[in-house]
Design brief:
Blueprint: H1 6-20, E1 25-30, H2 37-50, E2 54-59, H3 70-76, H4 81-95, H5 100-120, E3 123-128, H6 135-145, E4 153-159, H7 166-176, E5 183-185, H8 191-202, E6 205-206, H9 208-213, H10 221-230, E7 235-238, E8 261-264, H11 287-297, E9 302-303, H12 305-312, H13 316-328, E10 332-334, E11 339-341, H14 344-353, H15 356-372, H16 377-386, H17 392-408, H18 410-423, H19 426-443, H20 446-458, H21 462-478, H22 482-494, H23 500-516, H24 520-537, H25 540-556, H26 560-574, H27 581-597, H28 601-618, H29 621-638, H30 641-652, H31 661-675, H32 679-687, H33 697-701, H34 704-716, H35 720-727, H36 735-738, H37 743-756, H38 760-776, H39 781-795, H40 798-811, H41 814-830, H42 834-851, H43 854-865, H44 889-899, H45 904-911, H46 915-929, H47 934-943
Parallel strand pairs: 1-4, 1-5, 2-3, 3-4, 6-8
Antiparallel strand pairs: 7-8, 9-11, 10-11
Helix pairs in contact: 1-2, 3-6, 4-5, 6-7, 8-10, 11-13, 11-14, 12-13, 12-15, 15-16, 16-17, 16-18, 17-18, 17-19, 18-19, 19-20, 19-21, 20-21, 21-22, 21-23, 22-23, 23-24, 23-25, 24-25, 25-26, 26-27, 27-28, 27-29, 28-29, 29-30, 29-31, 30-31, 31-32, 31-34, 32-34, 34-35, 34-37, 35-37, 37-38, 37-39, ...
Length: 956
């Protein structure tokens, strides 16, 4: 099954075609077991045979490695008189006192046979699994390799990284050297290639969960096929029977075929274990290396050699020596800070080999060794979680380390604390329950609410009960249950609250709840004395929370600039105390969102950079997920869609589940994929949303991307009336919808699509609703732009749409600007100004092509084509495969920062990317620029005088 490595295949076909024309050459193909070495050379054999070349194939194996010339004989003469003649000489050599002459005669006979074949025409010889070949066969192959300069001979061999033998290394170096030599290493499949293989095997597009689980194979094609077979009962294929797209890039006028999607019915953690036979595939490792690798599996997907040495109670140098083989074989990869199993499925299989009782005992020993050595509490917790019941040492360690563990790994902390609370005596239980409440609040999960409610319900001490009430209220607010949070707050304030700071924090919570429950005037009235009391107390945390409450009330009163002033004051208070770091993170996120509404990207970038740095430094997963979501939205608006997708991917991996988060993550990802015309992936993304995804008011406020994505897919399928129906929730003038900043733009899309489908009444209603929304959000520029668009579209008024275009240019958001040019082109065409319409269309398409918005380009062309306007040449702008023009926008940014001498971590910080994403970009850059080092990138950048200015990342 030919999947992936298309460029390498084409180069190999060129090599074979050159051989068919009489040009000799050498090829060595290296790859791990299952990488596809044999399949690749068999393709070459088939191609050569089809071109009329003579072909011979043989494979060495471990069982015949001591039989002289066996590998070469199997290749050149698998049977027949030629084999018999050589075997006779080998028998003579074995029986002779001095066998040298017979050996030499046997080799000469084989070489002369090859020369005779070459005299008749081109020849391709392939020796598979060279690493097992006997020494005599290696010598023969070396002689043939030196003959390709004078013969029409193509000589190929394949090998694994292990075992390593000096004579094999020498031969491979010779075969790959010189102008006629070529060495190829089969790297693991990329994520896209793995998805392509899944599609080929299953006959359906893989869904997000299946694509993620495919990472367990580490890019190994054979292992991925084995895992698919192992998971076959857990893979469900839904939708139509076609896994390929249709159409020619224009708009489908007929009902689109449903696309078949293959998706896992279980979570990745619930999947069956990998095949038990999997570890047998690494039997080539020495016994000490295999044993060390199996012990490493106990430490999780990644580990340090020092951790492994501690667990094994051995010197680190011995452990490092035994890890050399797995590293050479590609089973482990060095990430810089840790060694990581490249194939998670292999780690799971090695782990499963150990008996359960032995695993439990080893985990407990590892936990104590790591803790006594002063390692991060998170690593100790991982071992305790896997080790079963906690002993007395583990309970005491947890009580001492709870707060640092909660900051680093709240999920692990909560699970261990629940076990400890169940086992602890009365003296330790209160402290453990308090820590458990902190962990539950940090997790921001739905189950946190009920856990905190249980702890609050059984608390008897007034101070402890009030503190738990505050944490419960906070958890309820995170989940968007403002009515219940207000009730708990009122009950708590009615009781004795001895601490003035805790009482003030509860009063601030009451302000927040009232503002969210559509009582902003009452909330503002109550916020005034809260801010005054916070100033009197002088406590930084109280000051931050008081200003946050006031800002929230002002925001709901429609006083955005005043709200931002209180946000800034709250941030200033929070910076005075590490205890207020969590509130500072919340305020920074709110500051970024508010300035985004005012179209002020520099301030947004500064706030998000500070928030991300703080969240990473404090290991605040809950706040980091908010920051990543805001960053993704920011990059989407800026037009850096690769960065937006990378941001939501990082959000996916964080262990929190705020009610609004799935709406933002899946909506934004589906919208980008839809604009790029990746319909299958966009549909699969939307299918991951739960039926009750919009139950919480906070989720409804962030529903714009989901509505737009659903409408886009319906319109793309030729169903504009369905597209209108998908957008209709935005027409409701409910309090929740009224505060949604994206609503005016969604309403403008209703006007456009409704007019295209002939639904004038809905379009008129959307114009009126947008007028009311813009009046309610009069401070912000976006709603005013959307209202101009609505009115201009409804009247097909070029003057109004030109005003909308001016506002879009001032805002600087690329997609909005593309829409504004497209709208103006349509209006000008309606009024008969075809030249001006063509000019506007060209500008719109240029904006869309810079974004990679293929669907928008197709839609704009189709709308204007129906009005008699075409752009002239429709030839697509193809991106070259090599050179600076081959770089994607994201890769170009990284390349220019590399040229400035920035390290990967520095680039990651500047562009809000993960270090691993930057590393992937750098690999692609080196390949496309055809250089071997970062210095080569810098040299090319210095020589390139016409390129963009260096990218310094968002913000000042």
């Amino acid at each position: 099954m030919r999947v992936g490595r298309e460029r390498l295949r084409e180069e190999l076909r060129d090599w074979v075609r050159g051989g068919a024309r009489g040009s000799g050459g050498r090829l060595i193909v290296e790859g791990e077991p299952g990488a596809g070495r044999t399949a690749l050379v068999r393709e070459a054999l088939a191609e050569a045979a089809a071109l009329g070349s003579r072909v011979r194939y043989g494979a060495a194996d471990a069982f015949t490695a001591e039989l002289p010339l066996r590998a070469a004989l199997d290749c050149l003469h698998p049977e027949g008189p030629g084999r018999a003649a050589v075997v006779a000489l080998l028998r003579e050599a074995r029986e002779a006192a001095q066998p040298g002459g017979a050996w030499l005669a046997a080799m000469d006979l084989l070489v002369s046979g090859v020369e005779e074949w070459c005299a008749r025409g081109p020849l391709l010889l392939v020796l598979d699994d060279l690493h097992w070949a006997d020494p005599a066969s290696l010598l023969l192959w070396q002689r043939l390799a030196r003959a390709v300069d004078r013969l029409p001979l193509l000589l190929a061999a394949t090998r694994r990284p292990l075992p390593r033998r000096p004579e094999v290394e020498q031969l491979c170096a010779e075969m790959g050297a010189g102008p006629r030599g070529r060495a190829v290493r089969l790297e693991p499949l990329t994520g896209a290639e793995s998805a392509e293989l899944l599609r080929a095997v299953l006959g359906a597009a893989p869904g997000p969960r299946l694509r993620e689980a495919a990472g367990q194979a580490g890019g190994n094609p054979r292992l991925l096929r084995d895992l698919i077979a192992q998971w076959s009962r857990s893979i469900e294929i839904t939708g139509g029977s076609r896994a390929d797209g249709s159409g020619d890039g224009g708009i489908d006028t007929a009902e689109a075929h449903a696309v078949a999607v293959a998706e896992l019915t279980l979570s990745e953690a619930e999947l069956p274990d990998p095949p038990a036979s999997l570890p047998r595939g690494i039997g080539y490792l020495s016994r000490p290396a295999y044993t060390t690798l199996r012990h490493a599996a106990l430490l999780g997907p990644a580990f340090t050699p020092r951790e492994l040495a501690l667990v094994q109670a051995r010197p680190a140098r011995e452990v490092l020596a035994e890890l050399e083989e797995p590293l050479l074989a590609g089973l482990l990869e060095d990430t810089g800070e840790r060694l990581r199993f490249r194939q998670p499925a292999l780690r799971r299989a090695l782990y499963a080999e150990l008996p359960r009782a032995a695993r439990s005992a080893l985990h407990q020993e590892a936990a104590r060794a790591l803790a006594e050595a002063g390692h991060d509490p998170e690593r100790t917790a991982e071992q305790l979680l896997a080790g079963g019941a906690l002993d007395r040492w583990a309970v005491h360690w947890l009580a001492d380390s709870a707060q640092s563990l909660i900051a680093a790994a709240p999920g692990a902390a909560a699970e261990l604390l629940e076990r400890a609370v169940a086992q602890a005596d009365c003296g330790d239980r209160d402290a453990l329950e308090g820590s458990l409440a902190d962990a539950a609040l940090m997790l921001r999960r739905p189950e946190s609410v009920e856990l905190l409610a249980t702890l609050h319900g059984r608390a008897t001490d007034p101070g402890h009960r009030a503190a738990l009430a505050f944490k419960l209220v906070s958890a309820l607010m995170i989940q968007g249950d403002m009515a219940r949070s207000l009730a708990v707050t009122e009950d708590a304030l009615a009781e004795q609250v001895a601490s003035p700071t805790l009482r003030l924090r509860l009063e601030a919570c009451r302000v927040l709840a009232l503002a969210d429950l559509h009582c902003p005037a009452q909330a503002h009235t109550l916020a005034v004395p809260v801010v005054a009391e916070a100033a009197r107390l002088g406590d930084p945390l109280c000051g931050a929370e008081a200003h946050h409450a006031m800002a929230f009330a002002l925001f709901h009163l429609g006083r955005g600039r005043e709200s931002l002033r209180h946000v800034a004051e709250g941030i200033a208070c929070a910076r005075r105390s590490p205890e207020a770091n969590d509130m500072r993170l919340l305020l920074l996120a709110n500051q970024a969102e508010a300035h985004l509404r005012f179209d002020e990207p520099e301030t947004v970038a500064a706030a998000l950079r500070e928030a991300r740095e703080l969240a990473l430094a404090t290991r605040s997963a809950g706040r980091l997920v908010v920051t990543e979501a805001r960053l993704a939205e920011f990059h989407y608006r800026l037009g850096d869609w690769d960065a937006a997708l990378a941001g939501v991917a990082r959000t996916d991996g964080l262990p929190v589940s705020d009610g609004w988060l799935p709406v933002v993550v899946h909506g934004l990802r589906a919208l980008v994929l839809g604009h790029r015309d990746e319909r299958e992936a966009a549909q699969a993304e939307l299918a991951l949303l739960a039926p009750d995804a919009f139950a919480a008011p906070a989720a409804r406020r962030y529903s714009g991307h989901v509505l737009l994505a659903r409408a886009l897919l319906a319109e793309r399928a030729g169903r504009p009336a369905d597209a209108v129906r998908e957008l209709l929730p935005a027409l409701a003038d409910s309090p929740d919808e009224a505060g949604a900043y994206e609503r005016p733009w969604v309403l403008s899309e209703i006007v456009r699509v409704a007019l295209d489908s002939g639904d004038t009444a809905t379009a008129r209603a959307a114009v009126a609703a947008c007028g009311r929304a813009a009046a309610a959000l009069a401070e912000y520029p976006g709603p005013a732009l959307a209202l101009l668009r609505c009115r201009g579209l409804f009247a097909q008024d070029p003057q109004l749409l030109a005003q909308a275009l001016e506002r879009a240019e001032r805002a600087g958001w690329p997609l909005v600007l593309g829409h504004a040019w497209e709208d103006l082109a349509v209006a000008r065409a309606w009024h008969g100004d075809l030249a001006a319409a063509r000019s506007a269309l060209t500008r719109a398409v240029a904006a869309y092509e810079d974004l990679g918005a293929r669907w928008d380009t197709a839609r704009a062309d189709a709308r204007l084509r129906s009005l008699g306007v075409r752009r002239g040449s429709r030839s697509a702008r193809r991106r070259p495969s090599n050179g600076w023009e081959a770089l994607t926008p994201a890769e170009l940014k990284v390349a220019l920062l590399v040229a400035q001498g920035r390290s990967n971590p520095e680039i990651a910080g500047a562009l809000f990317l993960s270090t691993r994403t930057v590393q992937t970009h750098v690999s692609h850059i080196l390949a496309k620029l055809q250089v071997r080092s970062r210095a080569g990138v810098a040299a090319q950048a210095a020589a390139r005088r016409t390129g963009p200015e260096p990218v310094r990342g968002p913000g000042p």
